[in-house]
């Protein structure tokens, strides 16, 4: 297999020792402070990253402001054509970029490729969307008047993204924001910078070959301090932030203080209800993939299983058996089901959660330990864990980014829905059942309170065509498909009087 350094070289990204700070020509800014990037796969150093200085930050903002003046003049279908080219370039680099994502973040190779595919898909979606940024025409109450609404770009869109989908979240935001006429500044997770550098380089190529200013898309390297700076910067019209609820709360306050716009995509705590009327054989793989896919580090990972009491014991045996067959190891080896957690902090968090669950009276059914993988010196591999929980287990309300799933019993569908909703987060939810009444109740206004509600399919993952996001502490934002584009534009309501009189609305008379 190719080493990540070879991949960077193939993409003409020369040095593993990066002083990479921005997406601009003068990217080699003076270093402020930096970070060594270690792969969780084998504990080897991929490279070094330095963070952007204040001067570099101003440079990025100024360049983006100038690029916006050029970009917004290009008709939307022309902008769509550029995003289409980005999709085509990504298709060419799918294997290399997918491999790097897998090595840098630790997700399976298939999931690394899947992430690039998601980027290609959203570019195609955005290209079509570029011809469909429709406004409404509304019937005016006044004679010889036309009332309509239209959509204009916002300006600079700041994208702050998390480590677990190091690049797809950028594409979800950027492809849509760009066809809407905005320019973008991306601050990726400081834990997965190399995957973002590759995306930036690929897009820079597209911009260069079209003689477009590279400030249309910039990359900023930094940690939460630069994220805070972006949130406070009123030159950034919209902040789209993906990450933990703690981060979202802080970003919301900073953006709110300046009355800016934000899209928040935060933590989830997703449940699957397994009814006695379910096709359990079909459900099992979805439940297991939901819990252990990406080592439980998806915002849509299945964290809670709510199982009907009549099938509980039999199902628990099947689940335990399935968990014990999970192959843990190098995610670049396609025979393995599950790779490592992102870093040792995540491993500590895994242990802490298990200890707390035990203290709160829960029972560990399987897992709960570290896994040594051959002669690999990474300490980030852990066993997928099942915890049998009491209905009131407090720790179950917290999102732990690890392959831990809680299992609880229920008696009635109403009780199951209540349990589903009884957490602060509201991202994804699912019911496995072939019973129409239960299904409709789960999907009704009295049912799941989440942004995503699935039937006979798990909580994990989503198609780009739908709007993606969740309620409550998940932040309320929507990204990707459907009409999520509207958050990236400003709506303008216009009235044109083409008559000879000037009638006021509501029949008001005003004579001078
Ligand atoms: P994190 O909150 O630690 O960091 C996410 C990003 O925010 C990083 O780029 C980080 O530098 C930045 N950041 C952190 N604090 C900030 C602050 N106060 N101001 C500005 N920027 C700040 O999250 P993580 O560990 O990288 O990712 C895991 C979390 O992301 C989980 O909670 C997961 O559920 C969530 N997530 C949500 C979605 C979604 O669509 N709802 C998608 C992916 C991940």
TrEMBL record:
It is an enzyme of class 1 (oxidoreductase). CDD domains: ALDH_F7_AASADH. Its EC number is 1.2.1.3. InterPro entries: Ald_DH/histidinol_DH, Ald_DH_C, Ald_DH_CS_GLU, Ald_DH_N, Aldehyde_DH_dom, ALDH7A1-like. Pfam families: Aldedh. The active site is at 265. This is aldehyde dehydrogenase (NAD(+)). It comes from Christiangramia gaetbulicola.
């Amino acid at each position: 297999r190719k080493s990540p350094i070879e991949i960077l070289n193939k993409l003409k990204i020369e040095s593993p020792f990066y002083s990479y700070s921005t997406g601009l020509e003068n990217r080699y800014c003076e270093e402020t402070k930096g970070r060594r990037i270690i792969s969780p796969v084998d504990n080897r150093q991929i490279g070094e990253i330095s963070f952007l200085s204040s001067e570099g930050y101003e440079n990025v903002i100024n360049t983006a402001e100038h690029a916006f003046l050029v970009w917004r003049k290009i008709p939307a279908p022309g902008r769509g054509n550029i995003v289409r080219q980005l999709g085509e370039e990504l298709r060419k680099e799918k294997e290399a970029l997918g491999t790097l994502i897998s090595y840098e973040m630790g997700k399976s190779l298939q999931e690394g490729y899947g992430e690039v595919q998601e980027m290609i898909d959203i570019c195609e979606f955005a290209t079509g969307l570029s011809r469909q940024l429709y406004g409404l025409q509304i019937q005016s109450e006044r004679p010889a008047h036309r009332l309509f609404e239209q959509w204009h770009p916002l300006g600079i869109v700041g994208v702050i993204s998390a480590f677990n989908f190091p690049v797809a979240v950028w594409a979800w935001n950027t492809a849509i924001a760009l066809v809407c006429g905005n320019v973008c500044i991306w601050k990726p997770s400081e834990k997965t910078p190399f995957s973002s550098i590759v995306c930036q380089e690929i897009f820079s190529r597209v911009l260069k070959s079209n003689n477009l200013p590279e400030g249309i898309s910039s990359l900023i390297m930094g940690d939460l301090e630069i994220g805070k700076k972006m949130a406070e910067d009123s030159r950034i019209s919209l902040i789209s932030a993906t990450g933990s609820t703690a981060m979202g709360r802080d970003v919301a306050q900073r953006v709110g203080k300046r009355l800016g716009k934000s899209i928040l995509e935060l933590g989830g705590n997703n449940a699957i209800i397994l009814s006695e009327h379910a096709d359990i054989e079909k459900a099992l793989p979805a439940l297991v993939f939901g819990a252990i896919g990406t080592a439980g580090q998806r915002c849509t990972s299945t964290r809670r299983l709510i199982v009907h009491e009549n099938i509980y014991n039999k199902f628990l045996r099947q689940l335990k058996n399935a968990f014990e067959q999970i192959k843990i190891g190098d995610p670049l080896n396609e025979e393995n089901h599950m790779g490592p957690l992102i870093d040792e902090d995540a491993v500590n968090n895994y242990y802490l959660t298990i200890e707390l669950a035990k203290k709160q009276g829960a029972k560990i059914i399987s897992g709960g330990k570290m896994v040594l993988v051959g002669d690999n010196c990474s300490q980030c591999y852990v066993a997928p864990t099942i915890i049998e929980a009491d209905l009131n287990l407090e720790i179950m309300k917290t999102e732990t980014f690890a392959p831990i799933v809680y299992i609880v019993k229920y008696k009635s569908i109403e009780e199951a829905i209540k349990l589903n909703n009884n957490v602060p987060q509201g991202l994804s939810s699912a019911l496995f059942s072939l019973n129409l009444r239960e299904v409709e109740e789960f999907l009704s206004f009295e049912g799941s309170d989440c942004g995503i509600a699935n039937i006979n399919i798990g909580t994990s993952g989503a198609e780009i065509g739908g709007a993606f996001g969740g309620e409550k502490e998940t932040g309320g934002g929507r990204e990707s498909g459907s009409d999520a584009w509207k958050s990236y534009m400003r709506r303008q309501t216009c009235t044109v009087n083409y008559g000879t009189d000037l009638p006021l609305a509501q029949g008001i008379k005003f004579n001078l």
